[in-house]
């Protein structure tokens, strides 16, 4: 039963927004649930835990109650989002031209475990985001130059938070991955500071921050061309058993 204080909607993830084949891109679904929690407000960070892979083209239940939002499929909890007082140590700014040059070192160009991924996959321009983070020489950073396609806006011409979270997501994994390596996103905590504009150019920067057993940790940031910080995130990935 839905209480008077609870909002509930039905969500279906289109196949376009996949990560691995058959399941949603982690950043996209995390941003979607975070936006359900916060709406257009960006006054605090949101921590999103992915408890299980989110299937595509299935009817999912998205519930928002107080400071928590959840996504479920039948009786299975898939995603949970909460508001947190999180402080981020953003990776340093990399100028757009330098970030774009770093893409030549993107390990996924050699071998990509999920070539159809919405964020970092080898999709057609305008279909996926085509964010290809490669090593920045002389640093511990990976970076990519992101040209925001007009095809990712909503009906009002706004780039949704789900797209911004997608851009923040995969780079934190590629800070660890070599060719053909992969993991699944387990948690993404992010804050969007400024609006992203379609047609704009941004630097996506990330770094690895540690490893513990099967867990990989990373941080990422989006910057405008003048170095203004747009969004920040920290991620936990889980490698295959």
From TrEMBL:
In terms of SUPFAM superfamilies, this protein maps to: Thioesterase/thiol ester dehydrase-isomerase
Gene3D superfamilies referenced in this protein's UniProt entry, alphabetically: Hotdog Thioesterase
Record the organism. Answer: Streptosporangium becharense
Name of the protein this chain belongs to: Thioesterase family protein
Q: Which domain of life is it from?
A: Bacteria
Cite the InterPro entries for this sequence. Answer: HotDog_dom_sf
